[in-house]
């Protein structure tokens, strides 16, 4: 008791209540996230169409699947946590068990908060993407954060759980499922972003004749600039290759005493000029 940090003595009797409250709060956050995604889905169907509606539906469906996976993860984690307390507390009360294992308890609370926070941030990012006020990259980052916080929750639970525990095996399976669903969110977000950007870049239906001509001239200028730059890089590549062959040949012909010897006369047809990359 004397060796334990004094900061842990503050309100230790409330740690047990904090765990239960935090797990319940995380579950509520997940339920609220699912409801908000359903509302966004309905709003997207009313306010968008075509490619944008297809992209929004695909992203929101993947977010819904991720939320369901997180909800199952939290439920399984709660069951495992109760199992750990029941098997480890002995004659002590639940509050005394949490106080005795305060480090583990605080880690469990922190991990649960991280999962709930990640779910909330994901929904807010999805809302902004659907409303075209956010960035697709935000969704990708949130998905990575959820995967990381899930790993944190599993690690915190695994410390005290029995290796043969069925709830631990279920929790690990839930964690893999969450990671898979998070990867699906990333994939649907990236493909949706490419679809939207391609549509926006290639949609010329609303342009006037003058605007089209101006865009055409600007594109021609860019093409000429890129072709000139490409030609310069091809010449540079050819010169680099020639110099590389010269240096490589010089190194092979240098004797051990360091004195350069005249290279033997090459046979006709053997030594050829290195090929220079040509335009396709």
Automatic annotation (TrEMBL):
Domain I/LWEQ: 7-248
Annotated coiled-coil segments of the chain: 207-243
Entry superkingdom: Eukaryota
PROSITE patterns from the UniProt entry: I_LWEQ
SUPFAM superfamilies for the chain: I/LWEQ domain
Keyword Coiled coil belongs to the record: yes
Subcellular location: Cytoplasm
Pfam family, one: I_LWEQ
Transmembrane segments: none
Positions of region (Disordered): 250-280
InterPro entries, A to Z: I/LWEQ_dom_sf (IPR035964), ILWEQ_dom (IPR002558), Sla2_fam (IPR030224)
Keyword Transcription regulation found: no
UniProt keyword terms in alphabetical order: Coiled coil, Cytoplasm
GO biological process per UniProt: actin filament organization; clathrin coat assembly; endocytosis
Primary location group: cytoplasm
GO MF term set: actin filament binding; clathrin adaptor activity; clathrin light chain binding; phosphatidylinositol-3,4-bisphosphate binding; phosphatidylinositol-3,5-bisphosphate binding
GO CC terms in record: clathrin-coated vesicle; cortical actin cytoskeleton
PANTHER family named among the record's database cross-references: HUNTINGTIN INTERACTING PROTEIN 1, HUNTINGTIN-INTERACTING PROTEIN 1-RELATED PROTEIN
This protein's name: HIP1R protein
Lineage of source species: Eukaryota, Metazoa, Chordata, Craniata, Vertebrata
Gene that encodes it: Hip1r
